[in-house]
Design goal:
Length: 187
C-alpha cells in the first residue's frame, strides 16, 4: 500500500512539471524569489507546475511589487547573478525545451526589458504549440529544439540585469502558462 502511494505521488509530481527551457540554463529560483513571492507560492513554482497554480497560493507573504509571476515566472535576477551570458548581435543561440506534457496552445520567445517588463523583440513564434492531438512522431521538432538569432538591440541590453530572453507558452484549454528566462548582455 505504502509503495503504491509513493509511486502515485511520484507520478503526480512528474506530471506537474509541464515545461521549461533546459538549455541555456534559465534563471533559477532562490532565496530572493522566496522572499518576494512568499513560501507558499515559491514552493509551487519550485514544483515546476503552471504559473496559474502558483497564483492560487498567493497569501499575505506575497509581495506584488517584487514577485511578478507572469514575468519570468517570478524568478529574481539576484538569485542567479552568475548566470548572465554575452550574446552579441547576430549570435545564434540554440535552445532546448523540456516538455513533459503537451497542452495545445501558443508560444513565443522574446527579448524582454527586465525593468519595464515588456517584450522588445520577438525571436520565435509558434501560432500553435504543443498540440495534444498529435502523437510523438508528429511533434514538430522546433517546439523543443530551436535556435534564435540575437537582433540589433542598440544599447538597451548592455548591462547585466537589463534584458533576458523569455520563452513563453500558454496552453489554452488547460489555462496554464509556462515561462523561462535566460539573462544576457550584448557586450
Ligand atoms: C545560477 O546559475 C549558475 C550557472 O548556471 C548555477 O551554477 C547556480 O547554481 C545558479 N544559482 C542558483 C541559486 O540556482
Ligand atoms: C507572446 O508572448 C507574450 C508574453 O510575452 C504573450 O502575452 C502574447 O500573447 C504572446 N503572443 C502570441 C501570439 O503568442
Ligand atoms: C492539432 O492536431 C490535430 C490533428 O492533426 C488537428 O486536427 C488540429 O487542428 C490541431 N490543432 C490546432 C490548434 O491546430
Ligand atoms: C517550426 O516547424 C514547423 C514544422 O514542423 C514549421 O511549419 C514552422 O515554420 C517552424 N517554425 C519556425 C519559426 O521556423
Amino acid at each position: 500500500m505504502y509503495g503504491i502511494v509513493v509511486s502515485l505521488a511520484l507520478l503526480v509530481g512528474s506530471a506537474l512539471g509541464h515545461g521549461m527551457v533546459s538549455s541555456p540554463t534559465p534563471r533559477a529560483l532562490g532565496p530572493a524569489a522566496q522572499e518576494a513571492c512568499g513560501t507558499a507560492v515559491y514552493n509551487v513554482l519550485k514544483s515546476g507546475t503552471s504559473i496559474e497554480n502558483a497564483v492560487k497560493k498567493i497569501d499575505s507573504a506575497y509581495d506584488a511589487t517584487a514577485c511578478h509571476l507572469f514575468f519570468c515566472r517570478g524568478t529574481q535576477f539576484e538569485d542567479n547573478l552568475s548566470n548572465t551570458r554575452v550574446y552579441k548581435t547576430g549570435t545564434v543561440v540554440p535552445f532546448t525545451v523540456d516538455m513533459e506534457a503537451h497542452h495545445t496552445g501558443y508560444a513565443n520567445v522574446s527579448v524582454v526589458d527586465l525593468a519595464a517588463q515588456v517584450p522588445i523583440a520577438r525571436l520565435f513564434t509558434w501560432p500553435v504549440y504543443a498540440n495534444d492531438s498529435l502523437g510523438p512522431a508528429n511533434w514538430p521538432k522546433n517546439e523543443t529544439s530551436f535556435s534564435v538569432t540575437i537582433p540589433d538591440l542598440g544599447t538597451k541590453c548592455e548591462e547585466a540585469g537589463a534584458c533576458a530572453i523569455q520563452w513563453w507558452w500558454y496552453g489554452t484549454k488547460v489555462d496554464q502558462t509556462y515561462e523561462s528566462c535566460v539573462d544576457f548582455t550584448t557586450k
